[in-house]
């Protein structure tokens, strides 16, 4: 609009079209015009009565709604494009007046369209050929039938508009339809019309991201749409197998059936389609071999077969014929071939993406001189490919590589210096190999690096200071090596660092007090080192921290109460350190630890009462999470990542590679806690593991623990608990491990379906406990009154005198006791007492046997 001058004819302005016979403005194209602000209702735009085409796409009207005055163009407007204008609010009902429209595009705005207005457009816009409403919020189910008048519709884009329920089949009856996009809704397509004439002009069909498409619907759509060029059915719960007989898809260039439940073997016709360039079949259940045809290999550019169960061999010579290939992903399969990396890269010079990880392929490298470079290669995944040598020569030419994964192989030798030349590298995965030696200083040259994972190698020595040059680093894992020295203070300057794992190394000294300086940490794992001192208060700034794992160090001090202020903390592991003292609750108790899923303070020296006030706030443990059919892992910084944390579960120290979001653990064992077990623990109804063993707890087991219906492992052993085992525990059907041994429990073991599965080890060391799996209560000698208590003296009164008091009345008993003590226990009085005790004991024994008989 820079040449719009008021002293010139507006018909000569950029974007303005006039009727040369009348001089009227009939077209206005201001797309990408950098317009911003509010589109006012009184703007001169609405004073153009002969306007036929209006295009305001790709401008910024973020503070504006579509003006209702748009209806003024009812007699003239044929083309209206308001896409990506950042409009908000409701589409004015006046839009239904524009019944001469041939093209209407309201897509990708933050606007809502009433369902009845949408239906009126379908019913009344008889000239409409293009209708795009992508991302417009309708959020409704379409009626089972409407009379669509826009039979000339060629393009219909209803992607991401919130459609629900069963999708009506009449949409597929539009005879002129060429492009149909129903992606990213909540509909199921169970039936479509059976007419052979439907969708015969269709060239592009996208039904991805919907609830379900029936297999017979898929077959009918493909059989009828012989002109199809693009077919996208990603993630639509499509089940069954692909037909063995070929479809007539001569023009098909793009096919995406990934992320479904398709099974069976791959039909050969898939690899014989003459025009096919892109094929996505990943994340299905296909098995068998890959039926490449040497005489009719298509001109593939993209081939993705990952996450299936494909087996057998794929001849590398066939792959080398796909000279146009830019994307090859066959990861996570069961193939058995052996490929040579140098030959592959030098032959397929157009490759940009190559992932062979976990494919079953054996990859070798001869490190021969490579004559061809792959200048556009961005990703190379060779994880678990049986590599035993670093491919120095092949990688030398991949200067634009952004992602390199050589993990889980058997690569030996020093850290490869050639990696330092890959200045565009963003993600580097070298974990689970046999790299040895020191980390080179030149690693700091890769300043774009965001993820660096080199755990489980044989690296040693000090961390190079240059590692602090990696200002974009967000994920750092150097665990399970032999690295040593002190943790550099400069780590606190890494402003994007979200996860740092230096666990299981030989670091010593204190935890740097700079780590919380930026406050970006979400996961800090320093377990298995020789760290000393107290936790630095700087970590209290890490308000996003979700995982803190400091297990197995020599850290000391009292429990840091400021941890309660980390509202996002989900895993707290201070196991096996030298923390001591009371667990204070001086922090704002009503808001602490509300997100906690796992807490392990075991094997320290904590004393005093169990922290009941903290238990009150474990809100994340108070609601049972519905189990998913697939395991749901806790993620940190958007990554389902967590190196093993050791937890005592079911009597064994078990490593958890990843934490399930519904596996909640409280372990306070092997400390010096005393007092009663708080009833409030019974409110943590989603607990899976509770371990309070090896403390000095006393009192009875709370009946409220029977509320822990999700619990699988309960260990209260090696304490001083008394009383009977609550019958409420017998109602926990999920309980797989129970240990109440080495306490002072008494009485009968409760009967219950789950209790019958526990052996003697769950209850041993409680002399007054009986019932299965221990001896029967009727045969249990310990149930009789203990003989050894007969001669005990309590406050100057013997047991015999107390029994006499029981038989003769309290006052008489006290009087006899005083008389006996003052006279030195005369023999005659002692004999009288013996007779009384014998009578009372006989009576109690009879009562006990009567009770047992019941």
* Helix fraction bin: 10-25%
Would you identify the regions where 5 or more consecutive residues have pLDDT less than 50?
784-854
The N- to C-terminal Cα distance equals 99 Å
In this structure, how is the largest beta sheet organized?
29 strands, mixed
Estimated structural class? alpha/beta
CATH architecture of the domain at 546-779: Alpha-Beta Horseshoe
CATH homologous superfamily assignment of the domain at 546-779: Ribonuclease Inhibitor
CATH class label of the domain at 546-779: Alpha Beta
Shape: globular
Q: How many runs of DSSP E, i.e. beta strands?
A: 59
Proportion of beta-strand residues: 15-25%
Number of helices: 9
**Mean pLDDT reading:** 86
What is the radius of gyration? 38 Å
Summarize the structure.
The chain is of the alpha/beta class and 854 residues long. Residues 784-854 have low confidence and may be disordered.
Textual characterization of the structure:
The protein is of the alpha/beta class. Among the domains are: 234 residues, Leucine-rich repeat, LRR (right-handed beta-alpha superhelix) (Alpha-Beta Horseshoe); 62 residues, no CATH class. It contains 9 helices and 59 strands. The protein has a 29-stranded mixed beta sheet, with no helix packed on it. Strands 30-32-34-36-38-40-42-44-46-50-52-54-56-57 form a 14-stranded parallel beta sheet, with no helix packed on it. A 5-stranded parallel beta sheet has the order 16-18-20-22-24, with no helix packed on it. The longest helix has 27 residues. It is globular. The C terminus is likely disordered.
């Amino acid at each position: 609009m820079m040449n719009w001058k008021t002293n010139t004819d507006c018909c000569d302005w950029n974007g303005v079209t006039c009727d040369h016979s009348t001089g009227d403005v009939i077209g206005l194209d201001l797309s990408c015009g950098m317009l911003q602000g509010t589109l006012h209702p009184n703007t001169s735009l609405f004073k153009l009565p002969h306007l036929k085409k209006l295009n305001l796409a790709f401008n910024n009207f973020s503070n504006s709604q579509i003006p209702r005055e748009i209806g003024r163009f009812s007699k003239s407007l044929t083309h209206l494009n308001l896409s990506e204008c950042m409009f908000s609010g409701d589409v004015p009902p006046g839009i239904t007046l524009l019944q001469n429209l041939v093209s209407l595009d309201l897509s990708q705005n933050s606007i809502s369209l009433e369902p009845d207005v949408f239906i009126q457009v379908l019913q009344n816009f008889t000239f409409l050929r293009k209708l795009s409403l992508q991302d417009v919020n309708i959020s409704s189910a379409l009626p089972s039938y409407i009379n669509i008048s826009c039979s000339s519709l060629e393009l219909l884009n209803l992607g991401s508009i919130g459609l629900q329920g069963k999708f009506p089949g009449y949409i597929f009856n539009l005879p002129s339809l060429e492009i149909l996009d129903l992606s990213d809704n909540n509909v199921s397509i169970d039936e479509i019309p059976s007419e052979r004439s439907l969708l015969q002009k269709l060239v592009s069909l996208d039904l991805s991201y919907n609830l379900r498409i029936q297999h017979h619907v898929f077959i009918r759509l493909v059989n009828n749409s012989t002109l199809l060029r693009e077919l996208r059915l990603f993630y639509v719960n499509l089940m069954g197998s692909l037909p063995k007989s070929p479809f007539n898809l001569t023009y098909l260039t793009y096919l995406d059936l990934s992320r479904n439940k398709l099974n069976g073997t791959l039909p050969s016709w898939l690899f014989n389609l003459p025009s096919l360039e892109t094929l996505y079949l990943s994340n299905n259940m296909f098995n068998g071999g890959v039926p490449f045809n040497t005489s009719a290999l298509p001109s593939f550019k993209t081939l993705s077969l990952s996450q299936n169960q494909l087996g057998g061999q794929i001849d590398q010579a066939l792959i080398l014929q796909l000279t146009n290939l830019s994307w090859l992903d066959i990861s996570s399969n069961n193939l058995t071939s052996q490929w040579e990396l140098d030959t592959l890269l030098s032959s397929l010079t157009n490759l940009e993406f190559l992932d062979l990880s976990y494919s079953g392929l054996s990859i070798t490298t001869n490190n021969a001189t490579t004559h061809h470079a792959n200048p556009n290669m961005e990703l190379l995944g060779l994880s678990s490919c049986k590599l035993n040598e670093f491919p120095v020569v092949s990688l030398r030419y991949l200067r634009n590589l952004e992602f390199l994964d050589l993990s889980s192989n058997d690569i030996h030798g020093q850290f490869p210096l050639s990696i330092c030349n890959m200045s565009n590298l963003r993600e580097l995965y070298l974990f689970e190999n046999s790299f040895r030696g020191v980390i080179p200083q030149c690693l700091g040259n890769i300043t774009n690096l965001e993820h660096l994972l080199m755990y489980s190698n044989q690296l040693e020595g000090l961390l190079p200071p240059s590692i602090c040059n990696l200002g974009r680093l967000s994920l750092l894992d150097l665990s399970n090596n032999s690295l040593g020295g002190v943790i550099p203070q400069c780590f606190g300057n890494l402003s994007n660092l979200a996860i740092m794992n230096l666990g299981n190394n030989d670091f010593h000294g204190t935890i740097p007090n700079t780590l919380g300086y930026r406050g970006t940490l979400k996961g800090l794992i320093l377990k298995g080192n020789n760290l000393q001192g107290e936790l630095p208060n700087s970590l209290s700034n890490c308000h996003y921290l979700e995982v803190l794992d400091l297990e197995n160090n020599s850290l000391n001090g009292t429990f840091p109460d400021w941890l309660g202020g980390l509202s996002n903390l989900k895993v707290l592991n201070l196991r096996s350190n030298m923390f001591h003292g009371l667990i204070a609750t001086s922090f704002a108790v009503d808001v602490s630890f509300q997100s906690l899923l796992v807490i392990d303070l075991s094997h320290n020296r904590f004393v005093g009462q169990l922290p009941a006030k903290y238990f009150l706030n474990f809100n994340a443990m108070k609601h049972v999470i519905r189990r998913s059919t697939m395991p749901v892992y806790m993620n940190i910084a958007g990554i389902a990542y967590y190196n093993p944390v050791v937890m005592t579960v079911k009597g064994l120290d078990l490593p958890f590679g990843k934490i399930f979001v519904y596996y909640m653990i409280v372990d306070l064992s092997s400390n010096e806690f005393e007092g009663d077990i708080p009833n409030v623990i019974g409110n943590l109804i989603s607990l899976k593991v509770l371990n309070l063993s090896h403390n000095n707890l006393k009192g009875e087991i709370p009946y409220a623990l029977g509320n822990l219906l999700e619990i699988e492992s309960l260990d209260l052993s090696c304490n001083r608990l008394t009383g009977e085992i609550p019958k409420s525990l017998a109602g926990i059907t999920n309980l797989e491990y129970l240990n109440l041994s080495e306490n002072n429990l008494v009485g009968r073991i409760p009967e219950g379906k789950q209790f019958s599965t526990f052996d003697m080890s769950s209850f041993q060391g409680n002399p007054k406990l009986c019932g299965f799996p221990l001896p029967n209560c009727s045969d249990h000698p310990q149930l009789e009154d203990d003989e050894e208590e007969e001669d005990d003296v309590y406050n100057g009164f013997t047991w015999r005198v107390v029994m006499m008091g029981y038989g003769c009345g309290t006052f008489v008993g006290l009087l006899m006791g005083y008389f006996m003590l003052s006279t030195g226990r005369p023999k005659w009085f002692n004999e009288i007492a013996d007779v009384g005790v014998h009578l009372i004991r006989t009576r109690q024994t009879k009562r006990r046997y009567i009770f047992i008989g019941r």
